[in-house]
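tl;dr need the bound structure. longer version: we got a ligand (adenosine monophosphate) that a collaborator sent over and nobodys looked at where it sits. i said id run it. heres the input, straight from their email, havent touched it
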Amino acid sequence: MILNARYPQLNPKLYHQQAPMPLQGAKAGHFNGALADSLQWSEAEKDNWVALCSGQQTVEGFEPLAMVYAGHQFGQWAGQLGDGRGLLIAQVKSKTGATIDLHLKGAGKTPYSRMGDGRAVLRSVIREYLAGHALNGLGIASSNAVGFTSSTQTVQRERAEFGAMLLRTADSHIRLGHFEWINQYAPEQLTDFTQKCIEWHFPECLNAEQPVLAFAQQVISRTAIMIADWQLVGFAHGVMNTDNLNITGSTLDFGPFGFMERFRPNWINNHSDAQGRYSFQNQPSIGHWNLWIWLNNLIPLAKAEGKEQFKQDLAAALEQYEPTFLTHYQQGLNQKMGLPQDHAESFDCAMQFLRILQSEQLDYTQSFLRLQQQQYQQLRDDCLDTHQFDQFLTQYELIRAHQDTNALQQIMQQHNPRYILRNHMAQRAIEAAEQDDFSEVDRLFQLLATPFSQHPLERAEDLAPLASDQAEVAVSCSS
Ligand code: AMP
Ligand code: MG
């Protein structure tokens, strides 16, 4: 590993240095060798991954640290939060020259643990491991993980579960909530902290006339694009609190997430979210709300005489959120549909398709795959209202009639995954792993590495939702 230890350059108020606390009976879960290679791990480091990923060893030259931050949780100010069970154990240079954080989740209590036990359970670690891998495979900005370990130590949740640790990678662990903590508890740090965020993560903004404004515009735009990408694959984050959003617009903190199966815009994946604040269709507007909260924390950075103007500039920047989201979403949907970007009726036709999926309760991923494979009869057979489907298909074929369909088909193939991480797939892998069998984790890992093409290890269940009379896997905040 080639270290670039930059977070410890910040004022020590912003973190707490401590060693990880290993679990009893630590053992290998799964390792992402390709990711380790991209992070320039040596052969010796790869051979030693279990020790690092179970907190038994640390990276020489980097003292592990827990970050402090704050946040709004479910719309309410939550005060001080922080890494209550995870430690930044290194910052390393990747082959492409980027600096990547290595964060060990489940590494024991920290000063920010509040009522928590500092641990993560095997179930949630596997879910996060596979979900980060899945989003990366889909080309969506997201954290990932080099590996995870299991253990023989039990951790109490609704039931006793096995403790586990995840070695997460991300381009940053700076959350919107970091700014909230600084404004509340250490406002004198705001200028320096913001400057560092820009230098580290948005260096191109340093040349702008107003670097802070340019930084805000970048965060807004990247967040809008990330959420548009989520909507396009049917990903629901589940807990979009401001402490779970990365300033880099990269998906972070998988808890009760889910990939939507039957198309239900008001789907609530997280059983702990009774009000549906973070339902699938609310994600774009919650992103906007979170950014609005965040932007308020930048206002103190205005020069005294220019405060009103700066507020207006930030408000204007936020106004770009919706058009950025919509442009990206519409383009992406046209790509999934195989419809031309420049045709006036393309988006309307795509919406008609989504209405069919909704009213017929069809599987989102499978239906797009059928459309791509031109299995129109099969799609029609799945519909009760065949008239509605026929109307759609007429419009769809009319729009495509004078287009280069080969090119459109190729675009469709690149934008319609065959595999997403369905809850029941993850569940089966978890149940086997709890019996010390990680082969199903490995099989899913392979499928999700290249989700757009058929894999020889595919099983029929990978392509379909559970039958509608089977109970769904309940996913809650417990992790
Ligand atoms: P989350 O909603 O999972 O992002 O967690 C919110 C906050 O609670 C974060 O500051 C976490 O570090 C902390 N937290 C969650 N679970 C635990 C746990 N088991 N032990 C200590 N802190 C936790
Ligand atoms: Mg969190």
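gonna send this back to them w/ a short note. Residues 211-233 form the longest helix (23 residues).
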